[in-house]
Amino acid sequence: MSNKKILILPGDYIGPEIMAEAVKVLELLRDEGEAIEWSFGHLGGAAYDAEGHPYPESTQKAARAADAILLGAVGGPKYDELPREVRPERGLLGIRKDLGLFANLRPALAFDELAGASSLKREVIEGLDILILRELTGDIYFGQPRGRRTTADGHAEGFDTMHYSAPEIERIARVAFEAARKRSKRVCSVDKENVLETSRLWREVVIQVARDYPDVELTHMYVDNAAMQLVRRPKQFDVIVTGNIFGDILSDEASMLCGSIGLLPSASLDVHNKGMYEPIHGSAPDIAGQGRANPIATILSVGMMFKYTFDRGDIAERIDAAVKQVIRDGKRTGDIAAAGEAVIGTREMGDAIVAAL
Amino acid sequence: MSNKKILILPGDYIGPEIMAEAVKVLELLRDEGEAIEWSFGHLGGAAYDAEGHPYPESTQKAARAADAILLGAVGGPKYDELPREVRPERGLLGIRKDLGLFANLRPALAFDELAGASSLKREVIEGLDILILRELTGDIYFGQPRGRRTTADGHAEGFDTMHYSAPEIERIARVAFEAARKRSKRVCSVDKENVLETSRLWREVVIQVARDYPDVELTHMYVDNAAMQLVRRPKQFDVIVTGNIFGDILSDEASMLCGSIGLLPSASLDVHNKGMYEPIHGSAPDIAGQGRANPIATILSVGMMFKYTFDRGDIAERIDAAVKQVIRDGKRTGDIAAAGEAVIGTREMGDAIVAAL
Ligand SMILES: CC(C)[C@H](C(=O)O)[C@@H](O)C(=O)O
Ligand SMILES: CC(C)[C@H](C(=O)O)[C@@H](O)C(=O)O
Predict the structure, then answer these.
(1) Which tens digits make up the pLDDT trace of A106-153?
(2) Fewer CB within 10 Å: N-end or C-end of chain A?
(3) What are phi and psi of B227, to 5 degrees?
(4) Which residues in chain A are contacts of B223 at CB distance < 8 A?
(5) How many CB atoms are closer than 10 A to CB A156?
(6) CA–CA dist B91, B276 (Å, integer)
């Protein structure tokens, strides 16, 4: 059997720093005998700098050929003034759409040792373990028509189209129910069915899919209420499934509940479980180049890659355990340190995790 | 001068109970000599029961003739199975659009005595005072086309149109800047400019309007980041201005930060400051008919009515002060009582506030 091919896209600002630590984990696993190999490419601002486009052909080719992709973080002030079509986020949207990465898995997990870093009370988040499933290749992100026009009376108007087809909804719903089966068997589908036609269809299709999963409990919640309930009583949720724009908002909100956004990985999967894996946090321009960034979310993204694309849940568990270990040992990068706690750098954190592995 | 005319729409479930207490406040003010009068009408489920439509002609006429409207809460399980066109929320959307109530003001205010009821840490919310300005008559709520169709290959599709015109954006932006002038002089405009064409226009127009308010600081934030920042560090905000759907989500999230959703009023204004005033909370079917609902948000809505429509900020301040007084005195309805605290009913709370006035 040939090696599994991983394409590594470090991205911008702290991207290369955190990626260097994730590569140490890959090296360890390869040295242990795992049949993996990797190459590097550009996405986002780095790709624009190198090749004039945030998702250049070279990356497209490599991404299509790869079995899995590991992404650092893209974007930052250096690229804010670029024309819209070549801004870093276009690269991100481009690769998602190009590879059909429709299922975005975003766990929101509390590390009880770090509850102090949350703005929520300890008892509200202790033990929190939510999985948000965000549809990633449809909705108002890609719906047509979209644009600008001038009305008869001379005013500018902007417009976008929210849109879902039944098959698009069905496939993300199935991912949600399958995931729930391996967890607490509860799916909460979030929509705005009392206002939107798209949401009406969404809800109908989800209800239909649910018939194939009689062992999983399905509830529905309006998106405004979901935004409230995530703050009020986040532990009521197991799996949340929702569309692209609502998922964008709710998954970011959820990731902040634990106060440890530097620790949360994510996966974006296609229909064959080929996936792109990346930390939830951004490129952190303010601390770039200083060796202070937290590599944990990127390393946990490696774990998700082994679990979902390589079907090696055992390795994912080892990586999760190693991370928990170093946290229990009191290792802290600046973002997760409480006042007075000793702070270590990106490299020390990476080395500590590799040692724990 | 003739009396100011208030149309009272108690609505469904706890609606009539909380409204009865607000009426006591109106009675007191009238007895003191304020030139106000009121009449009652139906909206939502109650209107459907009485007249077969959630926003019937009788209410339309009365609402157009009134100077201000006081609304309880609409909706509930009794009406969930009704055809979509006559569900209670259609009444709500109908009256907003019909009266041109484009500016929805939703304060999120911490009552420091009640910080215990919040899921957030005391220091995160103590002193919190945000004003969320949500555009209420445009966006994907009303954009055309919307509906359902079948694709060439036989699949169902649902779609909706997000839409804003420059004048719609300009008028809500002006309300935001004017409001900020009377507060801490900071406006944060929330959009998804990196993805949506509608948001691009939104941002351009807001920047243009800002030129007329050089004394007010303008910042921009993506909606996903705003959903995070509201949890992380809510006190960074003064005035937030955003579109209808983002505002729906963020204002509900914000109202939950203080854990006192039973205390938050709201106003929806037209271009002449005619307004509809209502508590932020829903119709609470679970406690309806038991005299347990908290009337404070409805009474504070009366205060907002005097401030914004009748230009009597002095009366609003009196009402606010009376509410603070009873809270300081330890009066608690069930929703805001900590474990072990004595609980009073809807009527006792109303009477206590009237007494404090
Ligand atoms: C950068 C932006 C286009 C992107 C999105 O909205 O999907 C980001 O917010 C995310 O969630 O990955
Ligand atoms: C009931 C619903 C249509 C309404 C809305 O989405 O505007 C409600 O959520 C609100 O915020 O007043």
Answers:
(1) 999 998 888 888 999 999 999 999 999 999 999 999 999 999 999 889
(2) N
(3) -65, -35
(4) 248-249
(5) 16
(6) 13
Residue pairs spanning A and B at CB distance below 8 A: 181
Task: Specify the pLDDT at position A175.
Answer: 97
Kindly report, residue by residue over B77-122, the tens digit of the pLDDT.
Answer: 999 899 989 999 999 999 999 999 999 999 999 988 888 889 999 9
Domain A129-257, CATH: 3.40.718.10
Contacts of B141 in chain A (CB under 8 A): 195
Question: What are B265's strand-pairing partners?
Answer: B279
Q: Residue B243: nearest ligand to its CA?
A: 2
Geometric angle at alpha carbon A247, from A243 and A252, rounded to 5° = 175
| B256 vs A156, A228, A259: nearest CB | A228
Q: Is A231 within 8 Å of B248 when comparing Cβ atoms?
A: no
Residues of chain B with pLDDT under 50: none
Residue located nearest, by CA, to atom 2 of ligand 2:
B89
For A255, phi and psi rounded to 5 degrees?
A: -70, -20
- The answer to whether the CB atoms of B227 and A252 lie below 8 A apart is yes
Q: Which residues of A touch B170 (CB under 8 A)?
A: none
Which residue in chain A is spatially nearest to B147 when comparing CA positions? A197
Q: Which CATH class is domain B1-114+262-357?
A: alpha beta
Tell me the nearest-neighbour CA distance from B120 into chain A, angstroms: 4
What's the pLDDT band for A154 if we cut at 50, 70, 90?
very high
Ligand 2 contact, A224 CB (< 6 A): yes
Contacts of B173 (CB under 8 A, 6+ apart): B189, B205, B206, B209, B210, B241
Q: What is A1-107+272-357's CATH topology? A: Isopropylmalate Dehydrogenase (3.40.718)
pLDDT of res. A1: 66
d(C-alpha A239, C-alpha A210), whole Å: 13
The residue ranges of every structural domain in chain A are 1-107+272-357, 129-257
